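Slack export, channel: ligand-projects

TW: morning all. Re-posting the request from yesterday since it got buried. We need the structure predicted with the small molecule present, not the apo form. The ligand is zinc ion; the SMILES is in the block with the sequence. No rush, but it would help planning for next week.
GE: picking it up
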Amino acid sequence: MQIGRVTVDSVLDGYMAIGREIEYPDMAASRWEPWVHLLGNDGKDVVNQLGGYLVRSDDYVALIDTGFGPSKVENWHAGELLNSLAALGITPEDITDVFFTHLHFDHIGWASVDGKPVFPHANYRCHVRDWEHFVSVGHAERIEESGFPDEMSAENKLRPIEHLLKTWPGTGEILPGLSAWATPGHSPGTTVIRLDSEGESALFIGDVAHHQAELCEPDWQGVADDDVALARQSRQAVAQSLAETGIPFVAAHFRDFEWGNVIADGSKFGWAQVQETVESK
Ligand SMILES: [Zn+2]
Ligand SMILES: [Zn+2]
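GE: finished. pasting the full token output, ligand included:
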């Protein structure tokens, strides 16, 4: 996707398919009908893509989120991010900036490996509130409860990059044409990244929504939000803004990293695909 003078590519790390009734436990089957074409496994599963987005301008080579990482965990099919970057002609040393939309384990997986930064020349950037929430006070126990290896904890993934860390305090410009929009709820520091170049724009909404239905229909609620009420408020603000501005956007986990537009539709919203960027696995 070309946004002005900036090139955006999805960078696949893998995928995780989960039963739709597990990711959205309150939703009756009939509510899925308008959205079933955006599910996998014959409409049974939400297919969460894993990975990030490469954003290349004259000034920077940025990676937004780093995927699940190389750890082997049942049902999580990942570990391809560096191969996907190589296919785009990018080595880890080329990355000048890593942005985290938030610090959940499936976004920081390639921050470091074996205690060493994967992107040694990059500034690693996140909202200060997520750093405090996930790293400063430690959340290793949460990872252990999930049955994931300890190597995937925020502490173990992010301490090794602390000397490369630059946090942002809230909403505002971070690099020329790349700005943060604080959208808390999914986590305290969850941020939408906005790209502007030569009059064109794009939004990277991270985990503000995990599926198009969750973004477009106000009463949908997934299982992963830290503060449910606040997450819903942020999600609605993002959907409203996308509908009003017509800005194309991508999310962290939409199947195939599909680009879309949000369309106003009475009391809810619709979704229209803009461009497909990778093949589904
Ligand atoms: Zn998340
Ligand atoms: Zn996520």
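GE: first-pass observations. DSSP finds eight helices and 16 strands in the chain. The domain at 2-202 is CATH 3.60.15.10 (Metallo-beta-lactamase; Chain A).
TW: perfect, thank you
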